[in-house]
């Protein structure tokens, strides 16, 4: 499961957990924290039909932060948190080498 604007609610994640169970896979929540200010800034170059209203971006950012606190109780035994896609790529490389079983970190402040 990748935490993003499309699955910041428990109800949106339920089908992902069900799919993992159906396929006998370990559900792992992967969150890449992009500050809301950066998300809003990135709206600029998007075509008009692909922009998201600022209040929606702010709501989704809050939803992401709130979701983090509940992921384990929802059924995600592993939570991988990264503050950048590059770090996530490094973690993926380590996992492929068998050096990473999973990581749990707590985001703080402007990371959300």
What does this protein structure show overall?
The protein has 112 residues and is mostly helical. It has one domain (2-111): Rossmann fold. Helix content is 45%, strand content 11%. It is built from five helices and three strands; from the N terminus they run βαβαααβα. It has helices spanning 10-22, 36-41, 54-68, 71-74, 85-96, and strands at residues 2-3, 28-32, 78-82. Strands 1-2-3 form a three-stranded parallel beta sheet, covered by helices on one side. β1 (2-3), α1 and β2 form a beta-alpha-beta unit. It is globular, with a radius of gyration of 15 Å. The two termini are 18 Å apart.
Which percent range fits the helix content?
Answer: 40-55%
General form? globular
Major sheet characteristics: 3 strands, parallel
Number of DSSP E strands: 3
Count of helix runs:
5
Q: Give the averaged pLDDT, no decimals.
A: 78
* Quaternary status: single chain
Please name the fourth-level CATH homologous superfamily.
P-loop containing nucleotide triphosphate hydrolases
Short description:
The chain contains 5 helices and 3 strands; from the N terminus they run βαβαααβα. It has 112 residues and is mainly α.
Key phrases:
112 residues; mainly alpha; Rossmann fold; three-stranded parallel β-sheet; 5 helices; 3 strands; globular; disordered C terminus
